[in-house]
Amino acid sequence: MKQWRCTICGYVHTGETPPEVCPVCGADSSFFEEVTGEAGEGGGLTGGEPLIKGGPKQALHKITYGLFIVSSLRGEEINAQCANTVFQITSEPATVAIGINKNNYTHDFIEASGVVGISILDCQGQNLARRFGYRSGRDADKFAGIPYRTGVTGVPLPDGCLGFLEGKVRDKLDCGTHTLYLLDVVNGGLYSDEEPMTYSYFRASK
Fold this sequence. Notes:
Layout: E1 3-6, E2 12-14, E3 32-34, H1 56-60, E4 68-74, E5 77-83, E6 86-91, E7 94-101, H2 105-113, E8 115-120, H3 126-133, E9 148-150, E10 156-158, E11 163-175, E12 178-190, H4 199-205
Antiparallel strand pairs: 1-2, 1-3, 4-5, 4-8, 6-7, 7-12, 8-11, 9-10, 11-12
């Protein structure tokens, strides 16, 4: 049976898929990683080579990420989640890619509408990250009491972020537990010149 570790609080879940919501800290399934090995997995180097600590999973933790609110809609419904897999592909024309767990409610909305909002968090955005990342939209209206504006694509864009992008799905790639969406950027801008929040900063300051 597989094991899944919450990257926010360390809770370990046993099952074929990660839980929809962490029972300890409330993080959604996108914050879980499969536990596949412990220290010593790196192997393969001999002689005077430096000692390797951990394996691929531990190395992946050192890749830098931002932290974003990814939003979409389905008919009159709106929903959003936290995500760290958002990155630019090209600047002309502007395209970005996002990775979304198939178990997440937002995935259903993107599949239905083909439009996505990406709100960029600054270093004061911990409360927004917790609001949109620690529970599923299936169980609660995450936008209740949260001021937001509606973008040109119809997606909700929460206030209090340093900037935003809107995109339309051009293509997608099945990545097993996740879908990687390629988005044509159709709108965007900055509200402030604050520093963007990194995923590592959020984990250290939560």
